[in-house]
Amino acid sequence: MTDLDRLAAEKYVLLTTFRKDGREVPTPVWAVRDGDGLAVWTVADSGKVKRIRRDGRVTVAPCDVRGRPHGEAVPGHATIADPESTNRVRGLLKQKYRLIGRLSLLGSRLRRGEGGTVGLRIVLDGPTPGRD
């Protein structure tokens, strides 16, 4: 199983972004496979979006809902999705997270509007060798 497959199968992943001074800022998020990368969904004006806009360097690790990692972090590069890609990410999240995903997305749209959230696309660095 590749790192991408392993991370995409997790219910939560720990997305770590980096401040200007290099300090890590880890956040547990939902993640879903999106082609050759991972996609996550977040509030458009969140700190992680601002940090990714400045520096797309991230790490991703499997974790629990509280952000406690239970596996190795994998380096990658994140980009902010355009509105069309963000809608695709929302659809993928609805498929993976079923009812709770639909309810969360609906609640967010009612609170923040359609443009209040954005998709993030993460491509893992280097090869992702198979694991047994």
Automatic annotation (TrEMBL):
Domain of life: Bacteria
Entry protein name: PPOX class F420-dependent oxidoreductase
Keywords: Oxidoreductase
Domain Pyridoxamine 5'-phosphate oxidase N-terminal: 6-97
Origin species: Micromonospora tulbaghiae
Region (Disordered): 63-82
GO cellular component: cytosol
Gene Ontology MF term list: coenzyme F420 binding; oxidoreductase activity, acting on the CH-CH group of donors
InterPro entries assigned: F420H2_bilvrd_red/Heme_oxyg (IPR052019), PPOX_F420-dep_Rv2061_put (IPR019965), Pyridox_Oxase_N (IPR011576), Split_barrel_FMN-bd (IPR012349)
